[in-house]
Design goal:
The protein folds into two domains: about 55 residues; about 100 residues, no CATH class. The chain is built from six helices and six strands; from the N terminus they run H-H-H-H-E-E-E-E-H-H-E-E. The protein has about 180 residues and is an alpha+beta fold.
Length: about 180
């Protein structure tokens, strides 16, 4: 059976195999994972090779089962946002389920706003108070979601090649997101 490829498809396949070989060699020496420095060093986006493709190769490198196992293990317990702008808070993943389209993990998150803080206009404020303030509520809610998303991308997607999606973000039984 012969398969015909266009020249463009052939070029993309060569690029994919080129990056795969380079990344695997790098991960063999340095351990799996990537960050912004990795992406800049390999000039991925400049050469039309995007982060989602790096993520896919990382998952392939680890093996799907191992990547999922490591991701689910990491997601257990309480997580701490130490410094996301002026936000500091803890959160728990209350539920995590496998998604197959595309492969990833969907999570429900509960934020501990009673102990969390944010600095607004130079003043320390409890997250719970900021969320109760009508003028601040939407901005604070959005920033909490952004901080958690950034944390999950850095600590799961970029280490294990598994995408994490936030299904629900709650604070004291109050739905914050979506």
């Amino acid at each position: 059976m012969n398969i015909l490829l266009t020249e463009d498809q052939h070029d993309r396949l060569k690029k994919y195999e080129f990056y795969k070989k380079m990344f695997y060699k790098y991960w063999d020496k340095m351990g799996p994972g990537y960050d912004d420095t990795f992406l800049q060093f390999f000039e991925t986006e400049k050469n039309g090779f995007y982060e989602w493709q790096v993520e896919h190769l990382l998952m392939e490198y680890l093996g799907k089962e191992e990547a999922l196992k490591r991701s689910f293990e990491f997601l257990k317990g309480t997580h701490r946002i130490k410094d996301c702008g002026t936000y500091k808070f803890d959160f728990d993943i209350t539920k995590s389920v496998l998604s197959n389209d595309p492969l990833g993990i969907i999570v429900n998150i509960e934020v501990n706003t009673m102990d969390g803080t944010v600095v607004i206009m130079g003043d320390d404020m409890k997250l719970s108070d900021a969320l109760d303030d009508e003028a601040l509520f939407r901005d604070v809610e959005e920033e909490i979601g952004d901080c958690i998303w950034e944390y999950l991308v850095t600590n799961v997607s970029r280490k294990f090649g598994i995408e994490v999606k936030i299904n629900k973000l709650v604070e004291r039984n109050m739905l914050l997101y979506p």
